[in-house]
Specification:
- The chain is an alpha/beta fold.
- It has one domain: Alpha-Beta Complex (Spore Coat Polysaccharide Biosynthesis Protein SpsA, Chain A).
- It has seven helices and twelve strands.
- The strands form three sheets. Strands 1, 4, 5, 6, 7, 10, 11 and 12 form an eight-stranded mixed β-sheet that branches. The chain has a two-stranded antiparallel ribbon with strand order 2-3.
- Strand 2 and strand 3 form a beta hairpin.
- Helix 5 crosses helix 6.
- The radius of gyration is 18 Å and the shape is globular.
- The structure holds cytidine-5'-triphosphate and magnesium ion.
- The site of cytidine-5'-triphosphate has 22 residues, from helix 3.
- Cytidine-5'-triphosphate binds next to helix 3.
């Protein structure tokens, strides 16, 4: 698909001291079970159009010329299987792939992925395996914004639904509404989220693992007081979470096959 060797043009560092002349890696947390998808194999290993979701996600990262290394964080006992699986599927370009075992929470899995990065990686994209269909333009836009000096970048979209804040209640009791944030001020965030490596590593060192852990890396960076910026996300970067999302993902792949023979 993309047979040319990859190279990165060194760019001047931005005011934030973003790294220059260093490589970009994508860390793909793929160690979740996929409880909300229902019984079956770990979510990242389930097939979409005959190809495991994780393979779609790795290809989506490898398709970006900005990305020279992909670190896949596999289910804790499944790293060998994931290595075999990736060996069986062609990847675009010349991207290197590393596979490491993950942890009990997404936050822990990302931390384990970061720990495996070689020294020459200065920019890290963190991308959910559960967002297998993110277009390359979104990946490129996030990577470019970090290269241009932003320490933390998230792709996001405006919301369709109005959002209510509630007082959660257990069972079937109606939940009292406590507020309605102005929809125009809200964004639904996606991945890949891009970071200056040192900033993200510091966030993972300082923000404690509590309960389920953080589901959003940018949120951890915000807690350091580091500015985070938003770039436009894409509707095809949606997260496969519930069974209906599989139907949508299959439809997106069918549309791609029909329109560009992809
Ligand atoms: N993830 C991970 N390690 C965990 C939990 C989640 O690497 N211990 C990854 C998932 O594999 C997924 C991403 O984080 O790619 C986003 O998580 P989510 O969509 O919640 O996936 P799951 O945790 O697998 O799904 P569920 O919450 O329904 O079990
Ligand atoms: Mg989860």
């Amino acid at each position: 698909m993309n047979a040319q060797p990859k190279s990165e043009t060194p760019r001047p560092a931005g005011h934030s001291g973003a790294p220059h002349n260093t490589r970009t890696a994508a860390v793909i947390p793929a160690a979740g079970r996929g409880v909300r998808l229902g019984p079956g194999a770990p979510k990242a290993l389930r097939a979409l159009s005959g190809t495991p979701m994780l393979v779609h996600a790795v290809r989506a990262m490898a398709r970006s010329r900005a990305v020279s290394l992909v670190v896949v964080v596999a289910p804790p006992d499944g790293a060998a299987d994931v290595r075999n699986l990736l060996g069986d599927h062609a990847l675009p370009g010349t991207t290197d792939v590393l596979v490491v075992p993950g942890g009990e929470t997404r936050q822990e899995s990302v931390r384990l992925g970061l720990a495996a990065l070689p020294d020459d990686i200065g920019i890290v994209l963190v991308h959910d395996a559960a967002r297998p269909l993110v277009p390359v333009d979104t990946v490129d836009a996030v990577a470019a914004a970090v290269r241009d000096g932003a320490p933390a970048v998230v792709p996001a979209l405006p919301l369709s639904d109005t959002v209510k804040q509630v007082q959660p209640r257990s069972g079937s009791e109606p939940e009292p509404v406590t507020g309605t944030p102005e929809r125009a001020l809200l964004r639904a965030v996606q991945t890949p989220q891009g970071f200056d490596r040192a900033t993200l590593v510091e966030a993972h060192e300082k923000v404690a693992l509590e309960g389920e852990g953080a589901t959003d890396d940018a949120g951890m960076v915000e807690r350091l007081g580091v500015p985070v910026v938003v770039v436009p996300g894409h509707e095809e970067a949606f997260k496969v979470t519930r069974p209906l999302d599989l139907v949508l993902a299959e439809a997106v792949l069918a549309r791609r096959r029909a329109t560009d023979g992809f």
